[in-house]
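Good morning C.,

I know you're traveling, so I'll keep this short. The sequence:
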Amino acid sequence: MTFSSVPFLVFFVITYSVMLLFNSRTVQEKIPEKMQLNLKHTILLIASYVFYGWWDYRFCFLMLLLTAVAWFCARKIDQDKNRKLFVTIGVVFPLLILGFFKYFNFFVDSFISVFGIKFTSALNIILPVGISFYTFQSMSYTIDVFRGIIKSHSFMDVALYVSFFPQLVAGPIVKASDFMPQLRSNHTLKIADLAKGAQIFAFGLFKKIVIADNLSVFVDDVFSKPLAFSSLTVILAVISYSIQIYCDFSGYSDMAIGVAKSFGYEFNANFNMPYISKNVTEFWKRWHISLSTWLQEYLYIPLGGNRKGTVRRYINLLLTMILGGLWHGANYTFVFWGLLHGVALCIHKLFMKARKGKKATVVGSIISVLFTYAFVCICWVFFRAENFSIAMDVLSRMFIWQDGITQIFSWSVFGVAVIAIANIFALVRAKKTKSKEVNGYYPVLDLNKVGSLVIFFLEILLIVALAYTNANPFIYFQF
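The tokens, ready to paste straight into the viewer:
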């Protein structure tokens, strides 16, 4: 069940309709507010487990186990009983679970490759959908309680936080300190929230099934046999993948934010126009913001951050990005992708130290944006390629001009044009409002107006007309 499927639409309508019962005056007058809140949380919890169990009900027990460990450890920490021991358990146990399911096959295959040992039968571990995301959230809860940012909550609240279905399988990663306080409010479903949520959802749906999914046809074809295509086509495919992965993942994040908004819950933005970044440091403040924030707060800073001297700072940066790459998947290409970004971050820190805060000119800023985007695209080659061999074939075609099949894919032109226009529009808007920061935003309209309704339904019709109809799962489901 994916956000872009008919079963999800049915699931959402049923869940929302049941929750809507609590909006009636009769329920609000006869049932105490505390009981209403518990019943709402119960409904959302059941819905979340149904949503996750749609893929494989067996992994619901795994998620329940991680929830129980996080709840138990946080409770002990709150009671001031062996705080360091229980925060260690609350962090190490989920990491062991994540490591087993995500990296067991990878390490076994690597061992076989290095030592040439063959097993007659090997344990084939199935990767649970979204395990990286809800594992990080269970850790976030335990750590936030240990730090005293939040207090321990009831088992139901922790279970709902870990499993809340809008962000369950592909993020954004929601910190416990951001979500748990929202559980104290008795959210009443509002038409205004539903209207905003629907528009944000539609915005993400357009990015996913119109842009990303149509681009995937071209990208998959070129990356499967890059040496058959001309250099121009390969370069276009790499650019297309940068648009595909952005629209695919940010589209999912938009849909998650929209669904949560419909139920009255707020998620922080997960993307903010990453391809206008002037450097790699800025890129990671705009790309997958929930992950970069999580890594900074729960990994980079605990490692010492920039408090242990210059050398240690760069080591911490490299280690954080390498582990961030490994988080994305059990493949050396992901590790190398993380290493490249780590090295780039270190170089940028050194460069900024040498410049001593000098501001760049307009021309210099434009060149910085183009250079950063080019670097990010090169890194995406390793992220997308199945192995180093394919990655090197793609790079060789990019940098050594060769003839071959030449194809100017129309959806690539369309995707680049849409992203470029959106970025220009945001830049112009920021200049008019004299904003210091250029921020992306959702074009939320007032659906009480006839004109706004017409625009919204035209968007829906456009999505239906241009949608890629073949089933195409979200890229980040594999992580």
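Safe travels,
E.
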